[in-house]
């Protein structure tokens, strides 16, 4: 059995604000340690449950956060930026299941450090259905016929996953109190939770269906201001809805929609506020 693991940072226990997830901030190294520890707990449990190969994709910001020297020796790590498929780089038909660790809720919802890709995105939709990073990544997994077996993060992320993916196992490692505060479980308790939930998720993997993406999906991104929408609209094939900050792109498949999202959001962050 081969398992793909995408690990973000905002959904790791103990990480409650930007000081833990931005390089150079006072708590960033602590964030890296806690992130790596959660990855190791899941990797160990997965190997104990019969996995033969585990690929881990560092999926936060510039994607060089995991401490490889402390990572489980049998795991393989995808690290660095730029990746053509970002948080789901390396995912393909060869995997038997996917695990999303340290995930957070989408921008329009409550949750610890909730957002969707960048601060410039207010909401994102596929064929009119709102999705966050979790949803879009799950659709890419579904494109390859790979079910998402486990999602870990705060309680808001868990609720989003359960609504989106019938039967998915969720591991709640902290409970949101606000966007920058949480009731956090200790790393020792989190280790127990992640071990149990990983074993549970792998045990019932045959009962979880891949989240099939729509054919010819329409990606729509609602930006926080008009300048960001203008920049995103520079991408050929996009349409800026008059009187809104929403930019749409009709894609041939979810992979093209995903890369369109990357281009549109990267363009949008160029907006100047001076």
Automatic annotation (TrEMBL):
Record: residues binding Zn(2+) 2: 8, 60, 104, 133
Pfam families: Peptidase_M55
Family annotation (SUPFAM superfamilies): Dipeptide transport protein
Keyword Zinc appears in the UniProt entry: yes
Annotated InterPro entries: DppA_N, Peptidase_M55, Peptidase_M55_sf
Active site: 115 (nucleophile)
CDD domains in the cross-refs: DAP_dppA_1 (cd08663)
UniProt: Zn(2+) 1 binding residues: 8, 10
GO MF annotations, alphabetized: metal ion binding
Kinase in keyword set: no
Keywords carried by this UniProt record: Metal-binding, Zinc
Protein name: D-amino peptidase
Taxonomic source organism: Salipaludibacillus aurantiacus
């Amino acid at each position: 059995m081969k398992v793909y693991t995408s690990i973000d940072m905002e959904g790791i226990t103990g990480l409650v604000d930007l000081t833990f997830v931005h390089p150079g901030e006072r708590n960033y190294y602590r964030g890296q340690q806690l992130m790596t520890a959660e990855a190791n707990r899941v990797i160990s449990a997965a190997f104990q449950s019969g996995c033969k190969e585990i690929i881990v994709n560092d999926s936060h910001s510039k994607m060089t956060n995991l401490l490889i020297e402390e990572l489980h020796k049998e795991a393989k790590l995808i690290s660095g930026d730029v990746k053509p498929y970002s948080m789901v780089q390396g995912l393909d038909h060869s995997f038997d299941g996917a695990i999303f660790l340290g995930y957070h809720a989408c921008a329009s919802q409550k949750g610890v450090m909730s957002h969707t890709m960048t601060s410039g995105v207010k909401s994102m939709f596929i064929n009119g259905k709102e999705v966050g990073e979790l949803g879009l990544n799950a659709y890419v997994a579904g494109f390859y016929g790979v079910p998402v077996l486990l999602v870990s993060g705060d309680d808001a992320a868990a609720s989003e996953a359960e609504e989106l993916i019938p039967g998915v196992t969720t591991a709640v490692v902290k409970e949101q109190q606000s966007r920058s505060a949480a009731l956090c479980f200790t790393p020792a308790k989190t280790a127990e939770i992640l071990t149990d939930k990983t074993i549970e998720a792998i045990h019932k993997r045959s009962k979880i269906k891949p989240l099939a993406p729509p054919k010819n999906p329409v990606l729509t991104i609602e930006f926080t201001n008009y300048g960001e929408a203008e920049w995103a609209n520079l991408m050929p094939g996009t349409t800026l809805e008059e009187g809104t900050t929403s930019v749409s792109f009709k894609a041939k498949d979810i992979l093209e929609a995903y890369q369109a999202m990357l281009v549109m959001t990267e363009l949008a962050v160029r907006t100047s506020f001076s």
